[in-house]
Amino acid sequence: MGLNNFLIEVDEKQVQWSENMTIASLLETLDNVEFCSVVRLNGKLVSSPKFTETIIMDNSKIQLLPLVAGG
Amino acid sequence: MDQINLKETKAISYEKAEIKKGYTDQSLRINLDAADIIINPIEEQIKNKFIGGKGYDLWLMWNAVSGDTKWDDPENAICISSGPLGGTPGYPGGGKSIVTSISPLTGAPIDSNVGGYFGPYKKFAGFDVIQIDGKAKQDTVIFIDGIENTIQIFEAENLPTDSYELSDVLTHHFDQDKPVNVSVVTAGPGAEHTFFGCLNFSWWDAGRKMVRYKQAGRGGIGTVFADKKVKAIVARYGAISMKANNPADFDALKLVTKTHAKEINELDPKQNRMALVGTTHLVPIMNDHDCLPVHNFKYGSHPESKVIGEEVYEHIFDKGFDGCWRGCAVACAHGVKDFSPFTGPYRGKKVFVDGPEYETVAGCGSNLGIFDAQTILEINFYCDAYGLDTISVGTSLGFVMECFENNLITLDNTGGMDLSFGSRFNALEIIHQMARGEGFGAIVGKGIRQMKKIFAKDFGADAAFMQDIGMESKGLEFSEYITKESLAQQGGYGLALKGPQHDEAWLIFLDMVHNFMPTFEDKAEALHWFPMFRTWFGLCGLCKLPWNDIVPEDNKNTPEPAKVAKHLGWYADFFSAVTGRKSGPDDLIAMSEGVYNFQRVFNLKMGYGTREHDTVPYRAVGPVTVEEYESRQKRYDEQLKEKYNLDISSMSSRDKVAALRQKREEQYEQLKNAVYERRGWTQNGIPTVATVKRLGIDFPEVMEVLKKNGVE
After folding, report:
1. How many C-alpha atoms does B8 have within 13 Å on its Cβ side?
2. Interface test with A, best of B289, B305, B360 (most A CBs within 10 A)
3. Residue A71: which of B502, B513, B561 has the nearest Cβ?
4. CATH number for position B437
């Protein structure tokens, strides 16, 4: 099985997936994400306090939400 | 119901002013004492200094009231303006009205920014701003007809009492054939009997063929409206195009409008999905960051919050276009159709609920321990129909519930009602009582500052404890964010001119989550820049959501992502295109700074506006109780040990509460020092002579107020 079979989509771009990948570990591999405090993981909101504990499954779709700016 | 009866008492015809570059250069004054209708020119100097919107409102207010004026004095005015950019169809958030008055809650100028079509219709009818002063003897309806070019004042009888029905009846009365031409401003019975009455601004929802409304919620302007016996102000106007503002550069306006709207259409579905869920996405986000008010701001999260956030409301909201301005791509003003209340005068009937937004869910839901989407909808509906501000209602009821659970007030005081957290039926009953001006609800309707006095004096409640947990500052109830871990946002609330509303600054994540502003100077810089830019939206007749709630995909790569530089540029282009005043982003800040400082001096004129009035209750700063401390003990213990180098090994929780409080209160005072310095104010929080001169607001009356307060 080739590496390309294990992918996730981050902001519509394909990214290599790995076992036990968390949102926190994913963000460590991306540039300019210091203001990312919320993502949508397969449509569900996940906030930064849960980044370390939230496992990303293969084929997941992730959107990095912009800086939370309040009401 | 009987036919409504409108008896004309005064009418004029007028020649409509031609709109030039976003301005009519005219104001309209309605004096209710004499039933006078007065049209005045707006001088070029005032236009240049105050820009429009809230700036115009404040200038008219300043001239209408003295330093001794109270909210219910006849000379207190309600001013409603749009702004030079307001009324641009298709520009996201391009149709706001800004309303001001002397507040029943604060005694100082209050301002509220609201959707609906009234502001633009009024402007296109010929008036940049209207001022309502005096007091009518009979129930009154004012009609500004921009199609027939007439203004009429009516004595009114047999009107529906609540906003929900009254807006509908008057819309059809004033244009049976084209209800889209009408926008109505109304209050309601709750506004008559409380200090936090709101105003409902309507628009015609062409898709659903019904009247919708948004609220000018904060500070009790609806209460002033009701006190003047104004039942409604109605504006009528016909077709509106992008040329309606007669912009200086139409092609540039078309380009920036199309560019901004296109971006929102593309990116909102990928970002906050406000066109689907409004602002309810904030509920789970705030909950996960410990910032959602729970049980009177005691806690910041609750497991049951998952049933009152976007996951639920996305499925309840009626599908369809929900822009509170024509063609707005954000379209976040969602609602629920065929809702059937289980209490009150609409019990069992089917109604349309306009909302809820985040603030209502948080204030009237989690903050009250009510984790029930249906009850929140019912509270939302009745607050709107009665003309009550959901933020003040939620925050006031949270205070009452905590007082009740601590036995500061008892069943004897509440008319036998259990007002423990989660008491949803009794919370609703309090709201019905507010509308009738009866029972314990009449006391709650006076707001937290008055309740603290009444509970202490009449019920013997602990005044010091109530001071700590009563979430008001300057007399205004807090909006719905927990600020304990964000010193910058404590300042965002405490240093806000009108009181603790987050429209001046929302810095919680920048400060608390990202530690983007570690020093006092960093925080002070943010508490200068953000209030100034946010003020600009209110000068121009715009909504701030399109600025930073949907952002360009490459925004994260910019030097200061929080400022959303690309959008700043677009707003400068928008302003330049309409007004012809070539402006860059820094110019927008400069426009706001003059008005902002003028409002601070206005507070001073009214007897406020100094350091002592910029305080916040300790509940906004840190844990008041041992229970509260222990709920986040790990966090607080670490701070005492690592941030403040204290040996806590022998401290009780009570000792730790006291130690943390001392440190945090010192920090808040240091923050004030830094912010005052950055803003060019004295250490008593008053703009210096050099500051008002630099900003060109050194009018003789301004200098006199400064001099009276020892600044010369």
Report:
1. 7
2. B289
3. B502
4. 1.10.569.10
**Domain, as residue range, for B57:** 5-236
By C-alpha distance, which of B59, B187, B186, B73 is closest to B131?
B59
Contacts of B460 (CB under 8 A, 6+ apart): none
CATH number at residue B665: 1.10.599.10
Angle at B511 between CA B638 and CA B679, to 5 degrees: 125
Which pair of structure tokens corresponds to residue B574? 């928008």
Chain A environment of B514 (Cβ under 8 Å): 34-35, 37
User: Residue B1 pLDDT more than 60?
Assistant: no
Distance from CA of A18 to the nearest CA of B (A): 24
Which residue in the block uniquely carries the two structure tokens 């016909």? Answer: B238
Count CB-CB contacts under 10 A for residue B366: 30
* B465 & B541 share domain: no
* Phi-psi sector, B81: left (phi>0), alpha (psi -120 to 50), beta: beta
Residue B108 corresponds to which tokens in the numbers above?
A: 């100082």
Q: Residues of B with CB below 8 A from A37's CB? A: 289, 509, 513-514
Question: Does the CB of B134 have a partner CB in chain A at under 8 Å?
Answer: no
* Closest to B322 measured CA to CA, from B545, B32, B653: B545
Is B271 part of the contact surface with chain A (CB cutoff 8 Å)?
yes
Interface of A with B (CB under 8 A): 11, 32-38, 45-50, 63-71
Contact assessment for residue B113 and residue B543, using Cβ atoms and an 8 Å cutoff: yes
Interface ipTM: 0.92
In chain A, the domains with their CATH numbers are: 3-64 (3.10.20.30)
User: Which uninterrupted H or E stretch holds A44?
Assistant: strand A44-47
Flag if B556 and A66 touch (Cβ within 8 Å): yes
What percentage of chain B exceeds 70 in pLDDT?
Answer: 100
CB B320 within 8 A of CB B264: no
Query: Mind listing the pLDDT tens digit for each residue in B426-436?
Result: 999 999 999 99
Higher pLDDT, A33 or B477: B477
Q: Is the pLDDT of residue A67 over 90?
A: no
pLDDT of residue A1: 43
Nearest CA of chain B to the CA of A28: how many Å? 15
Instruction: Note whether B481 contacts A70, CB cutoff 8 Å.
Output: yes
Measure Cα distances from B157 to B35, B137, B226, B283, B288 in Å.
Answer: 17, 13, 15, 43, 51
What is the average pLDDT across B275-289? 96
Residue B196 sits in the same domain as residue B68: yes
Considering only CA atoms, give the Rg of chain B.
Answer: 24
Q: What is the 3-state secondary structure (H, E, C) of B589-609?
A: HHHHHHHHHHHHHHHHHCCCC
| DSSP structure class, residue A30 | S
Question: Residue B271 is nearest to which of A65, A70, A71, comparing CB atoms?
Answer: A65
**Which helix (DSSP H) or strand (DSSP E) does residue B131 occupy?**
strand B129-133
> DSSP H helical segments within B243-334, as ranges?
250-267, 274-277, 282-288, 310-316
Q: Does B232 share its domain with B293?
A: no
List, as one string, the DSSP characters of B192-225.
HHSS-B-EEEEEEETTTTEEEEEEE-GGGHHHHH
How many beta-carbon pairs below 8 A join chains A and B? Answer: 79
Q: Which residues of A touch B553 (CB under 8 A)?
A: 11
Among partner residues A37, A69, A71, which is closest to B513 by beta-carbon distance? Answer: A37
Query: Which pLDDT belongs to residue B514?
Result: 87
Does the pLDDT value for residue B585 go beyond 70?
Answer: yes
In this structure, are B195 and B342 located in the same domain? no
Answer whether residue B37 shows pLDDT above 70: yes
Res B154 pLDDT > 60:
yes
Closest alpha carbon within chain B to A33: B556
Q: Chain A residues with CB inside 8 Å of B357's CB?
A: 71
Q: What is the edge-to-edge ordering of all strands in the sheet holding B150-157?
A: B5-13, B150-157, B140-145, B230-236, B182-186, B199-205, B210-216
